[in-house]
Amino acid sequence: xxxxxxxxxxxxxxxxxxxxxxxxxxxxxxxxxxxxxxxxxxxxxxxxxxxxxxxxxxxxxxxxxxxxxxxxxxxxxxxxxxxxxxxxxxxxxxxxxxxxxxxxxxxxxxxxxxxxxxxxxxxxxxxxxxxxxxxxxxxxxxxxxxxxxxxxxxxxxxxxxxxxxxxxxxxxxxxxxxxxxxxxxxxxxxxxxxxxxxxxxxxxxxxxxxxxxxxxxxxxxxxxxxxxxxxxxxxxxxxxxxxxxxxxxxxxxxxxxxxxxxxxxxxxxxxxxxxxxxxxxxxxxxxxxxxxxxxxxxxxxxxxxxxxxxxxxxxxxxxxxxxxxxxxxxxxxxxxxxxxxxxxxxxxxxxxxxxxxxxxxxxxxxxxxxxxxxxxxxxxxxxxxxxxxxxxxxxxxxxxxxxxxxxxxxxxxxxxxxxxxxxxxxxxxxxxxxxxxxxxxxxxxxxxxxxxxxxxxxxxxxxxxxxxxxxxxxxxxxxxxxxxxxxxxxxxxxxxxxxxxxxxxxxxxxxxxxxxxxxxxxxxxxxxxxxxxxxxxxxxxxxxxxxxxxxxxxxxxxxxxxxxxxxxxxxxxxxxxxxxxxxxxxxxxxxxxxxxxxxxxxxxxxxxxxxxxxxxxxxxx
Amino acid sequence: xxxxxxxxxxxxxxxxxxxxxxxxxxxxxxxxxxxxxxxxxxxxxxxxxxxxxxxxxxxxxxxxxxxxxxxxxxxxxxxxxxxxxxxxxxxxxxxxxxxxxxxxxxxxxxxxxxxx
Lengths: 621, 116
Hints:
The complex is a heterodimer. Chain A has 17 helices and 23 strands. Chain A is of the alpha/beta class. In chain A, the strands form 5 sheets. In chain A, strands 2, 3, 8, 9, 10, 11 and 19 form a 7-stranded mixed β-sheet that branches. A 5-stranded mixed β-sheet of chain A has the order 1-23-12-18-20, with helices on one face. In chain A, helix 2 (61-70) runs parallel beside helix 6 (185-198), helix 2 packs parallel to helix 13 and helix 5 crosses helix 13 (445-456). The longest helix of chain A has 25 residues, at 489-513. The radius of gyration of chain A is 24 Å and the shape is globular. The two termini of chain A are 33 Å apart. Chain B has helices at 2-15, 24-27, 31-39, 52-72; strands at 86-87, 92-93, 107-109, 112-115. The radius of gyration of chain B is 17 Å and the shape is globular. The two termini of chain B are 22 Å apart. Chains A and B meet through strand 5, helix 6, strand 14, helix 8 and helix 11 of A and helix 1, helix 3, helix 4, strand 2 and strand 3 of B. Chain B: Belongs to the SDHAF4 family. Chain B: Residues 39-116 are annotated as: Disordered.
């Protein structure tokens, strides 16, 4: 396809990006003929199938916002792998950006977004990235209405003394436009949406339900989504959800890295399932890191439990005079940027990462101890307290820090209505790649993107749902995944233990070879090592008696992490320039001709593929 | 600060919905929230004895900083009277005390960055 920077393992790719506009008038599965009596019996035999008009995978802001709208037109299942509030949304504490001040403008918000995204440089070059510009425009234009709706739903944001919304100004924004609720905006939005969802009689929330794979079929050249297979992680039961429309809103993938701000649920399940379902994935090389998370390995007393999500040390520490040193107490930032510690966050992150990789070390030091003790304790009591718990006094010792993975700009490629190249499958939120963030996300744009695209996917979903016929025997058309009870507890425990080790090994490979400062040779090493690790792990599984249709939480998360890690590496290898969050020493400059998204097409007939790249169920009719 | 604690408590109550069987204790899962609820009640725990007095001095300072932040309003330039919740520096009602949380780009609270 001209004008696209892409990698493809596939055969015919020409059809994959065009979204079919014609209405889906019949379900091909109905054409399977069976005598009526047999059909009814075979349908009733298996009770663990549920039928919904809409299935929503994920319970963050995107999933819940969408659910509340489509629930006015049909039944909705909200499927969430842990407790409903466990989502990246809940940890997005900063704010939501929107043009809500008379002196601000949509154009200004758009421009800030585009500049941050390192995506477009001027009006004339807009045409070849036209889809991204349109995405930027709709988000910035529709933002204010989405915020007002949230307020109408009961979300409570901070106000100024004049009674209007208090708007903060965050790095990268040229106007005050961040709406927030103290230091828990995401949590407040999540709370308000969850309350509305729980009160809606048409919405059924299934918590501790883990999505395994999307149920898909081929209708000519088009892939169609019919629902999703789920594992109830509490009862170990596999349940098949058949739905006319599915929204993937499963969030991020921070846990491909060892240090991340994301909660444990963020294992890239949605991106992996979509890739296995033949959806197009885009821009996975753009991973956002915060430069200075507290590095537990550098603390005098090791925490007894591994931290689930990173403790980030604010940029204000550097702003107030904190200095970065490597473990030889050399101040290194001046070598990378004349602004030294006051360089932009991404530059600092690169400097730290470079030092760590060159010197093969685990953390660097951020020293504020040269400042007056009183000032340190009055400005940063949170850091002081946390470090003190582990024997570190920041008024006299430097703080060990390491970059933490925070946000994935890439994901499942979405059109302006949140549609994907898979019929009846929509995406919204961090799992989607709408093109808004480009090569680097502007602060506070992620909650906004989730709100806007969740809302935009509503009408097309309703239209699609209304023109779909539900075949109650569809559920028989794929093999059923099974929980491996037959292997016995002790074998299962061994498998879980080994899987946990493998996850740590994968994270180390990703951090070591696919970090912030990249190189072709490191990326190729990563590709090889990840491939080997994956084969080794799968061999172990199958050696223990695991069968391809078996599913368990840890194993499924692991296969999703492998899948996403490989997507990140392939995307990074494909981009022969440095742009935004993707920096590679082999192509250290921006190349105008490469200002295009990275697209990964699925492979329609995978050869020598691994368990992580295939759907668990085979289509049997 | 008191308002934030109030909001957190209503969050905890609101999330314990019988329909889902959510347990109250697990509902508020963010570390900073737990710290907010616990900090005014307990002293810091877990520092090694060998660091002795310097540590306990620092602990007291942190404790008093957190208590100040909790609602005294002394000496940080705020009005008492009509708008006890107003932060003069940022013009915000009901928000965090002290300087603008985003002044250096990320969102910070007492040193911890909670978003960016």
